[in-house]
Amino acid sequence: MSKIILGISKLALKVASLIGKGSGSPGQLALKLSPNFLHKFNIPKKVIMVTGTNGKTSVTKYIVDFYRACGYEVTTNDNGANVYIGITTTLIKYSDFSMNVPGDVLVLEVDEGNLGKISDAIHPDKIVITNLFQDQVDRFGGAKELAWKMAKTFPRGSVLFVNGDDPMASYLASLVENEKTYYSVDCPDAGCFVDVKCPKCGKKLEYSERVYDHLGIFNCSCGYAHKTPDFVAENVHGRDFTLAGREYKAPEDAIYMVYNSTAALSVGLSDNLSEEKMFEVLSTIKVGNGRLQRFKFNGHDSFLNLVKNPAGANLSIDLVAKSHVPYNLLIGINRHEADGVDDSWVESILFEQLKDSPLNSVYVLGESADLLEKVISERLPGHEVIKGDANSLISQMEADGKAGYFLANYTMLAGVKSALKGKNYL
Length: 426
What we know:
By secondary structure, the chain is α/β, with parallel strands linked by helices. The chain has helices at residues 2-19, 25-33, 56-69, 84-94, 115-121, 137-140, 143-152, 167-175, 255-270, 275-284, 310-320, 369-379, 390-400, 410-422, and strands at residues 46-51, 74-76, 105-109, 126-129, 159-163, 180-185, 206-212, 215-219, 231-237, 240-243, 246-249, 293-297, 300-306, 327-332, 359-365, 385-387, 403-408.
């Protein structure tokens, strides 16, 4: 019966691709016909899952490219479909009619809210936890609440690769009995930071070293503290850093790229992958798909970046603030279900960090444009805030002739990318 459902689903996948339907529809059909369909596949022996708030897509890509560069055949969900239905669709796409998923390694980006259900069907050997930040509070609550929820259904027997600088990811690790490998980045004051409460006792966490947001070397009077890391990125200078005595280059000069690289390298080093091959991959990998995607705008260096929570948005603000030339900023935020319908996180974006930079105007769009206008006007008095749609706002930025930077959340990203592509910038 499963093979019949697979055949029907593969046909549905072909039809969906022809009519431009969403990536989850064949999986949705298969699961409707057989609720345990994801359990039926014959999976490669090695399974690696990447989860967390920020960095999942990038870390997944790095790990995939590491293994491929070292001669492994890898299957992955590189379309970003990281929930239960989407991953079912991925396996429908790549499996043969005997339900064998090809490859030596299966590497999956997994939504943090879906990890328990997906890992029940496909047991991972390794799980990377990139970080746990405030994100989609209507869905997850705070980072501590997310850690609780994830711990309840966390798969046993998997080896965890945990961002040890994150007190919330480390808290999740403390709630489960799995074997843990901790990684860390030694780069003090790399971005703006925020105070958080200890997830164990509720007191304000203390830090002997801060990196950005709530990441750093933390401790609490209750005894909760930063674990001694197994892998540490040191001597961080822009893209360059050292790990386990070897020099590497992150894909871009951004602290979160160093974290993403360190997470992926920790997995690769644990499997004794070639350090030389991993160096080549990281130093030449092309960042795109709205993840710090660089291009020229009005003759100046520019980028488009996905921002979906305060931590990611504030890192982008830090990058924008480094501009040495007059610039305009465009930011688009929606509040669809995929984004999280609670957009109050916009009020936690530190727009005031731009006050001493050569910022001209801020262009806002999306369902949260009014909130953006309010927050930005309060934090950056004297700077004009202009509302509109992507095409008209980008045209106005073109006419102004200044440099430009572009930030957007999930459901705004495609529209901003389309407008930039339509003007031949991407």
